[in-house]
Amino acid sequence: MKSYTLYKKEQFEKNKKLKEEYDNLEDEYYFIQQLVTARHKAGLSQKQLADVTGIAQSEISKYESGKGNPSLKTINKLAKGMNRKIIIEFV
């Protein structure tokens, strides 16, 4: 059985448009991964994070599923609710 990485590479070679779309979403998926990982490391459920931040649990769910687009102010509020801070870099 092929690894996911090999399968993905083969598909990208066959379909340049697929690779382009995947690359366009990479930053969004990275943010989602960071948000979920930080929440888990903080030992919080979405409901608990909602209670701490005042952000509705349904909104947190949207952010974690890629269906929401939080503002920088909201991201900062989420970070503080998990005893974290955000760092923005232009690289």
Can you give a write-up of this model?
With 91 residues, the chain is mainly α. It is 70% helix and 0% strand. It has 5 helices and no strands. Helix 1 (4-14) runs antiparallel to helix 2. The longest helix is centred in the N-terminal third of the chain and has 26 residues, at 16-41. The chain is elongated, with a radius of gyration of 16 Å. The model has no long low-confidence stretch (mean pLDDT 92).
Provide a short characterization of the protein structure.
Helix content is 70%, strand content 0%. It contains 5 helices and no strands.
How is this fold's topology laid out?
Elements: H1 4-14, H2 16-41, H3 46-53, H4 57-65, H5 72-81
Helix pairs in contact: 1-2
Distance from N terminus to C terminus (CA atoms, Å) equals: 37 Å
Structural class call reads mainly alpha
Strand percentage? under 5%
Number of helices: 5
Low-confidence region ranges: none
Integer-rounded radius of gyration: 16 Å
Shape descriptor reads elongated
Instruction: Report the sheet with the most strands, covering strand number, pairing sense and barrel closure.
Output: none
Instruction: List the helices and strands in order.
Output: HHHHH
β-strand number: 0
Mean pLDDT: 92
Question: Helical content, roughly?
Answer: over 70%
Structure keywords:
5 helices, 91 residues, elongated, single chain, mainly alpha
